[in-house]
Amino acid sequence: METTFIFVKPDGVQRGLVGEILNRFERKGLQVVGAKMLRVDEDLAGKHYAEHEGKPFYPGLIKFITSSPIMAFAIRGVDAVTVSRTLIGATNGRKADPGTIRGDFGLSGGFNMIHGSDSIESANRELALWFPEGTLEYDKSSNLWTYDPSDLD
Ligand SMILES: Nc1ncnc2c1ncn2[C@@H]1O[C@H](COP(=O)(O)OP(=O)(O)OP(=O)(O)O)[C@@H](O)[C@H]1O
Ligand SMILES: [Mg+2]
């Protein structure tokens, strides 16, 4: 089992897409093990997107992420990092495949509604940053019918 970090960006919250987006993770069978709504400050935004500091889009990205509340989730499942990135789709909504979140709801490269960790290492770093109190541990009973026992080896 992996735990990944996602958040619905200000555009997704303002467009009323939090429920739609979370539903895609729930119906896939993934387990929600943390959730919080907050207004991101410059310090948290800078730490989260540190890898992009110095790039041309960085100032606009920080302005965007701090402009209005976001809703963050910790999501658990087998291969949760990769599965979540697949659900999310390519960075630019104009290029993202239909059926993905960005492909179905987006037309922008910057305002792309959702973030998802891009590796297990990123997920661990981001979860420590956004959920320093930790995430929940509880049995999801439907996992027994979501995964074949061999998926869990
Ligand atoms: N060329 C660009 N112009 C404007 N904004 C951009 C551009 N490239 C990236 N961004 C913004 O910065 C974010 C981080 O870029 P990154 O390359 O990590 O894409 P991503 O991994 O698909 O998205 P995220 O990290 O938010 O999940 C993008 O999601 C987007 O909001
Ligand atoms: Mg990224």
From TrEMBL:
Which cofactors does this gene product need?
Answer: Mg(2+)
Q: Which Pfam families match?
A: NDK
Keywords, alphabetical: ATP-binding, Cytoplasm, Kinase, Magnesium, Metal-binding, Nucleotide metabolism, Nucleotide-binding, Phosphoprotein, Transferase
The UniProt entry annotates the active site at 115 (pros-phosphohistidine intermediate)
Note the CDD domains from the entry. NDPk_I
The answer to whether keyword Cytoplasm applies is: yes
**UniProt binding sites for ATP:** 9, 57, 85, 91, 102, 112
MF annotations from Gene Ontology: ATP binding; metal ion binding; nucleoside diphosphate kinase activity
Keyword set includes Ribosomal protein: no
UniProt-listed Enzyme Commission number(s):
2.7.4.6
PROSITE patterns recorded for this chain? NDPK (PS00469), NDPK_LIKE (PS51374)
Give the catalytic activity.
a 2'-deoxyribonucleoside 5'-diphosphate + ATP = a 2'-deoxyribonucleoside 5'-triphosphate + ADP; a ribonucleoside 5'-diphosphate + ATP = a ribonucleoside 5'-triphosphate + ADP; dZDP + ATP = dZTP + ADP
The record's NCBIfam families line, in alphabetical order, gives: PRK00668.1
UniProt similarity note: Belongs to the NDK family.
Protein name, per record: Nucleoside diphosphate kinase
- Gene that this sequence comes from: ndk
